[in-house]
Every structure is written in structure tokens, then in C-alpha cells.
Amino acid sequence: MTQPPPPPPPYRESVYRRRAHEIDFRIHGDDLQYVEIDLDPGEAAVAEAGAMLFMTDGVEMNTVFGDASEQQGGFFGKLVGAGKRLLTGESLFMTVFEATGRRVETVAFAAPFAGKIVEADLMELGGEILCQKDSFLCGAKGIAIDIAFTKRLGTGFFGGEGFILQRIRGDGLAFLHAGGTVTRRTLAAGERLKVDTGCLVAFQPSVDYDIEFVGGIKNTLFGGEGLFFATMTGPGDVWLQSLPLSRLANRLAGAFASRKGEGSLLGGLGDLLDGRE
What is the CB neighbour count within 10 angstroms for residue 6? Predict the structure, then answer.
């Protein structure tokens, strides 16, 4: 007689359940995106100040001092969290959006400029990612937004992001925003990738982050890529953006400067002929 298979081991909920709030989401749009998050009763999302697009009537908004994660406790903890946010150039405050009713509520957050919103599941990524200082948009309550210092002096001076990076920790969902199109590359152990310093968005802590001199007089003076590359050495995942905000700002500034100079001989008549008046 065939024996029945043994019963599965007992399910231990504490092992598999996220500590951060579990949220459902949808990302809308193409180049100017926003993320829509569904909150069950009692669930909450955290976001940078000013990121909210809309929320349904049953969502309660609460502005908090410093980091909005549940790990932060007491006045001293809030003060430390606010100081860290100040170092990364962010606002001293974050906003918590909690569903206080008896049904599913919705809150949406909009990207600050043209680009893509990227979902990062911290549970699948080992509980931590490092990213550029202004890339965090929103996430599930329970994740912590901290700071990390670059390990090498040269990387801090020439790596494009300075000495301080943003560290996002926890086991929930976080949403990052980057300019243009975002690509995610998985590096094998020892595999190296050279990146324009402004195009680096985020990477796992297992990836070694350093800089490398471009080399060559012509490359340095006329290559248009600056003096240094960022070098990423695996193993781990790296997220890159095709259009850094700094590059877009430089192009816009150049366009405004050239527009100001155009038609200077003809003055207002030149603007009129160019169709700018």
C-alpha cells in the first residue's frame, strides 16, 4: 500500500511576512509617470514632501519630522533622521498617507520631471540599495531612508554624487525616479561596467563603486564625458538613467543662452522673423 506523502512543515508567518506594509500599485504614463498605490485599512505609504498627486477621501495625510519609517523612535531618533535627510539635500519632513476607513483607499505620487518610475522590492534585493540623493519618490511604510558615505576619497570628489548616497533599507516596496529611460543591468562577479557619473541611479551594496580617469588628451578635452567614469564591479544589480537632470538642465541653459544671443544684430526684428515674438 502506497504511503501518503509527509505533511509540509508548519508555516511560520513571522518568517515570510514583510515587516513593511504590503501595498498594491500601478504605474501610469510613459515619460511623465505617476504611481498609484492601493492601501488596505490601516496600511500606509511614505513619500517625499510635495510628491502627492491625489488621494481618495479615506486617506489621512500626516507630515512627520525626519525619516517616516517605523524603526525611528523618540525625539533623538527623529532629530538624527532629519539631520541625515538634510545631508542628502532633501526636506526635513516626510509625509505619511494612511488608509483610515474600512475600504481600500488610493493615493498617487507624481514624478518631478520627465523620466521613469522604477519599482524596487527590497525583500528581493537583499534588504538594501544605494542610490543617488534625490531618486527616492515614495514607498511602503516601514522602509527606512538613510545615508551612506562613499568608501573612497576620489569617488566622493569625482563620482558625480559626492560623498553621500541615499541608502534605502527594509523589506517593502520602494519607488525611485530617474530621468529619461531606465535600464537595469545585472553584473556577474568581477564583471566591470564603465558609466557616465551622472547616469548612475542605484546599485546593490555588493557592487563595488569606484571612479576611473578617462585618459588621453583628446578624450579629456573633447570627449564630452568629463574627466572620470564611474566603474561598477559585480556581483549585483545596477540601475542607469539615460537623461540625468543635470544634463537636461545644461542643455536647457545652453538653449536659453543661444536664444538670447540670436538676432542680436536685428534686435526685436530678428525675434519677430524667427517667430519668437
Answer: 6
